[in-house]
Amino acid sequence: MTDIATPATGEAPQQEPQGAPGVPRRSYARLAADESREDYSLRYAPHSFRRWSPSTVAGTALGGIAYLADFAIGASIVFTYGFTSGLASILAAATIIFLTGVPIARACAKYGLDMDLVTRGAGFGYFGSTLTSLIYASFTFIFFALEGSIMAQAMHQAVGLPVEAGYLVTTLIVIPIVFRGMGALAKVQAWTQPVWIVGMVLPFVVLAVESPGSWGAFGSFTGTEGAAPGFSWIAFGLGTGVALSLIAQIGEQADYLRFMPARTEANKRRWNLAVLAAGPGWVVIGAAKQIGGAFLAFVALEAVGKTHALEPIAPQIEALKPWLGSFALPAAALFVIVSQVKINVTNAYSGSLSWSNFFSRITHRHPGRVWYIFLNLAIALTLMEMNMFAALNKLLGFYSNVGIAWIAAVAADLVVNKRIGLSPRYIEFKRAYLHAVNPAGFGAMVIASTVSILAFFGLFGRYAEAFSTFIAAGLSLVLCPLIAWLTKGKYYLARPNPVNGPGVGTADITATHTCAVCETAYELPDIADCPVQAGPVCSLCCSLDAECGDVCRKEPAGGPVPLPMPVVRTPAG
Hints:
mainly alpha
């Protein structure tokens, strides 16, 4: 059995006393075993850990959408395609993101699982979701780089710090917060929220008083690239593709939603509202920010020029000048810096989770989530130094083809396949019960993203190029149920789950069972029955075992007989 690699301390991994003959016990590296920092990064989030109220979880999740990339994206879309086509693009993308986000948010909150674990059980399989972990990781470091660039621009404006040095500062400043996990993130989001709200609203109040005719002029704006007046289908398709690059944001929302307390009769109204607001609801605010950012950039265009108008700090300063005068610069810089810290702690945190999921399956080692923070930030810093901000539209337009193919396939499984019986009703995320690859979701995503990327590069003509993201979404939504039907759903489960599968909705899921490998108690949904260990094993120890040969999947039909497991009753928490 492969043990966990210890972190850079150089300490040898510890072995627990022998249990079954010849089977060593696993001891997790110190940081990987500290759930106050680890936050159950590769696991089901147990009820005993979900100690926050629905409103606290929702507030923390929504704090992460303080980012100003929406300002830059909205301004870029409207400057390129004009107000009419740009507005239609932003609203269409927001609608698609909202509708696909609803089932995903509810599943993550209900089952206490992050986006990777939901993807595993929603049509992708155990190794199939490894690819989506990379897609999600790329989302986090692309947007960390984008947000970091905006923050570096603000520091350059405020104190003259060279932009290249600003990139490094924006990267280093988030590490102490992200290192400490959900508890620290919740505090940062709560403490900074008043500053962010004032900074977000004030520029629009100033313009409403000082320049009330600006909105009318904005409505007739045809952009800076010579776009024709009125609506253009080509411009609409291309603009929607850029805005849809944000669709993977539901994964970052899910990283918080998995800590929602159990839904009960007493809290169901607050629970439903919190999940809706913190899940797909982020895009309502996001779309408003894109439109608002485009408006601020339009107002500042004549004073600062196109290049600086696309940088959120400059329009913010111009909007505040009539009221704040020389204090407009420090006030705008403070707002931008607070906004970017709020989102980049989320980007770094979510990136550490996705890299942990990826490498645990590839290497069968888990040194702890916190070590992958540095990998994610190193890639983001490299992108910033390469000035990715200059290629914003092209980069995001390409990424959205892959992101929407993934999210649409997961949504199709949750909404269609599970309801008509092609997929198990619950989310099975444990290696012991999953096929390596499920062609339903994984196949749908690969086919849809391949076709849409070819369209994006112009292989099928101008209209297909413009609407490549719609092609990706449509193909994923159709192919996932179709492939599941053609394969009769047989690739969802490698064997039945005799421990907690069929009864997961009614069993006492807060009951704990001791893992035969790490000898730690975990709640029922995190436990699998293991013939190699001759007892229960937790999902992470199961994932990290490199030598079992997946014996449990090779048992006769019906799988191994569930073994009696000592049960310790614990409160729901």
